[in-house]
TrEMBL record:
InterPro entries in alphabetical order: RutC-like_sf, YjgF/YER057c/UK114
Top-level taxon: Bacteria
Gene3D superfamilies (alphabetical): RutC-like (3.30.1330.40)
Source organism of the structure: Dyadobacter soli
CDD domains recorded: YjgF_YER057c_UK114_family (cd00448)
Protein name: Enamine deaminase RidA, house cleaning of reactive enamine intermediates, YjgF/YER057c/UK114 family
């Protein structure tokens, strides 16, 4: 697999994402459903957004690993949040740490939504290649 990063500007570097990722010679693609702060017993967390993001990241890493993929090869990540302002102000450092941990270079969209399932307030949806 070959990845090429397209960044016409530099400002996005501080935000831990890229403008576009071109992927060639892919063996397989994994489309991961939205991963949120759902606990192992299937109950939804009612914790604050920062805590929920940590659980959602863990769940995303678990699904990707279980499928035999590597989080470093996430090429597309959509973040659904019930408050973009809260995400940026209280959770963005956690997101940046996740990206740095895996040396990811992914296209990202942050979307504020009216609501998520039950008590959830953040969800991560990813496309991963190998």
């Amino acid at each position: 697999m070959e990845k090429r990063i397209i960044n016409p500007w530099e400002w996005q570097d501080a935000l831990s994402y890229v403008q576009a990722v071109e992927v060639k010679d892919v063996q397989a693609t994994l489309y991961v459903a939205g991963q949120a702060a759902v606990l192992p017993d299937g109950t939804s967390s009612d914790a604050d957004m920062r805590t929920q993001l940590g659980i959602a990241i863990h769940n995303l890493e678990t699904v990707i690993s279980q499928a035999g993929y590597d989080a470093a090869n996430i090429v597309r990540l959509t973040i659904y949040s019930t408050s973009s302002e809260e995400f940026v102000n209280n959770c963005f450092d956690l997101f940046k740490d996740f990206v740095a941990k895996h040396n990811m270079k992914q296209a990202v969209t942050l979307m504020q939504v009216v609501g998520l399932y039950e008590t959830l307030n953040v969800e991560l949806e990813a496309t991963v290649v190998k």
